[in-house]
Amino acid sequence: MATLSSPPPPVTQNPDIRYLGRLLGDVIRAYGGDRLYRQTEYIRSASVDRARGLHGADVVDTGLEALSLDDTLSFVRGFMLFSMLANLAEDRQGVAADPDADVASAIERLEAHGIGRDAVLALLNHSLIVPVLTAHPTEVRRKSMIDHKNRIADLMALKDAGRDETEDGENLDEAIARQIALLWQTRPLRRQKLFVQDEIDNVLTYFRDVFLPVLPALYARWERVLGVRPPSFLRVGNWIGGDRDGNPFVQAPQLRSALGRGCEAAIAYYLEAVHALGAELSLSTELAHVPEAVLDLAEGSGDNSPSRGDEPYRRALSGIYARLAATYRELVGKEPPRPSRLSGEPYAQPGDLRRDLVTVAQGLASEGDGALATGGALGRLIRAVETFGFHLATLDMRQNSDVHERVVAEMLKVAGVEADYAALDEKARVALLRAELASNRPLGSRFSEYSEETASELAIVQAAAEAHETYGPACISHYIISKAESVSDLLEVNLLLKEAGLWRAGKDGGPARAAIMAVPLFETIADLEAAPGIMAAYFGLPEIAGVVRERGHQEVMIGYSDSNKDGGYITSTWGLYQASKALAPVFEDAGTAMQLFHGRGGAVGRGGGSSFAAIQAQPRGTVQGRIRITEQGEVIAAKFGTRDVAMTNLEAMTSATLLASLEPEGISDKDAARFAGAMDELSKTAFAAYRDLVYGTEGFKEFFRQLTPIQEISGLKIGSRPASRTKSTRIEDLRAIPWVFSWSQARVMLPGWYGMGQAFEAFEDKALLADMAQSWSFLKSALANLEMVLAKSDLGIAAHYLPLVEDQTAGGAIFERIREGWQLTHDGLLAATGQSRLLEKNPKLDESIRLRLPYIEPLNLLQVELMKRHRGGEDDPRIKEGIELSINAIATALRNSG
């Protein structure tokens, strides 16, 4: 029986949303005409009335049937832009930000537990925190749209400062209205499919415009909080140009391009910073004491200008600039934007540049109270060089283990070592691979002929070796192995790396050396369960044990998306928790630090939700100050679209890591054991329900493909990768991204909640469940994400998609099972969390979601109608464009839908 819900409070728009919404209305009237404005306003007000439950609103004409195809396209654009502007307004108000998610607050919490700053600093000395940006295709908006939105955010910041005009003297209100008008007239859809180079260029703007200035500023803040200068533990990573799993378009040229463009951006940033410092540091020897080290730099610079004869800091910086310019020419292959008139030797490594900058800083610190050397532009530049080097962002390589197996098999066969490697059992494979790794003799030969796949994979590892020579070893340090299921899967990668000299066998009893770490990605529920055994066996190999001890840590990647598609939300979440916990003693026995790489997506069904809460919810002892997390698609713009937002999210990630590493577990060992037993039971029930529906129900695959816009999503130009790994239509072979994205569009959001309702209902000890939901950080985080998904889903709207299913009898039965499952999940969650309605305890998120629901419903209704016409054979191109626009608009309104 459904629980009774208390009525939610009325929605009150924040002032920014009212202001931007009014300007958007003015733009629609001015550029779309009064008729379109009146139609849009009628549909909006009718939908708002229905959402508020006003009497008779359910029978009011929606206004949608009066729209022509041209009107439909314009209307959908208008609602999409409102959602985009509402997102901007909420970001400015910190609606999505976690309270007290900053390092200062984390230190206060730790001190309350008796954990002092010395412990924090000791942790940071061996920490590594890395957001890794990927090209997973869930960002439906064009970069041009995001750029206009960010310009509006900058202009709104000027209003916050009490300004009436821009720096160019333009009226602020008019400038904001102009940007909205530009948005209105900017094509929202991509006409051409993205290529890998487009993805490289897009992500580079975040590295160049956001991360380069933001990370040094964050470190300066943390130095003030900690009272000492911490090491550069927070860095950035990148998959774009190195992730080949299922993407045949990523090859050696793309890897070289990604690294080359990153190098160009990093050194160009340093050149601008050094140039600016040269203008600032005008100290004269007539007025300041200058140490010999700075004078030596000045004398060696080649800057003999008489006007700067008494200004050694400027001359020293001229020399540093000249050497940087030479480095740019050597690594980038062209002249820098502002060439130096001096000649200089290129810097061999970033550490040499840092040394010269530190010499300048120490000179400034040698007089007075040191104010000239602390912080400031020079301090930020030194921090940037430490953090970004000459490579900007560490690029991961990734490929599927099936590809490695085929490549190694072909190489062994061509070399005459083993005719049929694929036929060997695991024990024989491991023995053969170890024998090959014990020698530095290459297995391949440039005179041998290989298949296109093998030649491409060998070219990739060779390009990685060249990158190490050019940019230093920090440019590529991880090789991710998708579908890792055995020790041989890891050894195969080491063998491929050996072909390029990136694995070296030990000499005279010394340990082997691996310049790039082979990292297994455990994705399915079975993979997660097998992970501890595989890693124990891997560490048990003497040559691997030597490599790991030498490095001091080993990474394991755990995948949220495929484990969810495989076993459902709660089983995936619990399986990841259990695998992480089970891996910890394996690493402890091996005497090495564990570094978990969390493969999270934007949607809850792919590990989405608050990173701050998710990191804190990790099992104690599994973080240890080291964590990497993927960020992709729409999440990149949401978390790192502007400098202010990026600082907030990076600070939250860092503070959560400190708390997860040092704060004591909030429950007793006895409770932990009780709770784990209960979770096993809940997970088992949820898993059975989910598997029975998705994989055990006849016709479910067809139901999914006909109910949701999966076919239409596959045609969107939002990424360089295909939607499926193979040509199969099986759900097992579908990528997790379109699986989750499609359910979100139809407002079912099944991957984020299905199965939990049956688990709630079957679990008898409701008091224990409520205790777990209240006091256990793991379950609190999991249920908070599930609750958000339930609030964004709407089975009433989803029912409008049901006529798209060809077999109405079977489709109706499946849909009824889903509806019942949703109600069970809804009722069970309210009972466990002690609420009378969804999000009762999270009013900010509740208001945010309810604000946008009236703007999503008409989009769903239009999408269904357009899909009917499209699938019915109508070939008007406006129908297809309308569907794609509606997908764009719904995703924008839902925010974390992919």
TrEMBL record:
One of its GO terms (molecular function) is phosphoenolpyruvate carboxylase activity. Keywords: Carbon dioxide fixation, Lyase, Magnesium. It comes from Sphingobium agri. Its EC number is 4.1.1.31. Coiled coil: none annotated. Forms oxaloacetate, a four-carbon dicarboxylic acid source for the tricarboxylic acid cycle. The active site is at residues 136, 565. This is Phosphoenolpyruvate carboxylase. Homotetramer. It catalyses: oxaloacetate + phosphate = phosphoenolpyruvate + hydrogencarbonate. Belongs to the PEPCase type 1 family. The lineage of its organism: Bacteria, Pseudomonadati, Pseudomonadota, Alphaproteobacteria, Sphingomonadales. Its cofactor is Mg(2+). The keyword Metal-binding does not apply. HAMAP family: PEPcase_type1.
